[in-house]
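Hi all, long-time lurker, first post. I run a small reading group and we've been trying to get comfortable going from sequence to structure in the token notation. Rather than ask abstract questions, I figured I'd post a concrete chain and ask someone more experienced to write out its structure so we can walk through it together at our next meeting. Sequence below, copied exactly:
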Amino acid sequence: MFEQYKLPYSYDALEPVIDAETMETHYSKHHATYTATLNTLAEKAGVQDKTIEEILGNLDQIADATVRNGIRNNGGGYYNHNLYFKIMGPNAGGEPTGALKESMDRTFGSFEAFKDKIFALATGQFGSGWAWMSVTKDGQLVLSNSANQDNPISLGTENTPIFALDVWEHAYYLKYKNLRGDYVKNFFHVVNWDVVAELYEAALTK
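-- Answer (accepted) --
Happy to help. Here is the structure in token form:
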């Protein structure tokens, strides 16, 4: 049975960047629904004993098209939000350090250049979706965006996401209204780069 990532911080801990009402609705309503629906559909498809990465990376093996599409959406929502909530935290922000920083500087030129690229991907994603930083099988960092609840795994890239930025309207609309760009800029103040660095190191050993 798939379980929601347990928040290690309170709903109001990310104020003023993300308001408590948005966090509570996002986590206890949206994410909870994705999780519950995934569990129902995974059992129906007979894949409940597989990891979410295995399921999303092999969606074509689910014969029933309706169940497959449901798992793509709800399984993606489950995986994506687990990562999104995990890489945020209070008293966070700043810049990455260590091996992650070195790799980001090497790949993107600088941390500011990385932020510019992510901003462009996040604000340029038409409609609902996500912006990502992932690690390729050969250990390189790559950026991308995706629609709806798709992610680099469900899209078949074989890349491992380590940074997820949710640009569905439910992630920011109560506070920022239609100003997605303001939300994206402020998001960097709540990114826990220590967690992202841990995910980076783990991805390198896969």
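A couple of things your group might point at:
The domain at 98-204 is CATH 3.55.40.20 (minor pseudopilin epsh fold).
The chain has two domains: 20-86, 98-204.
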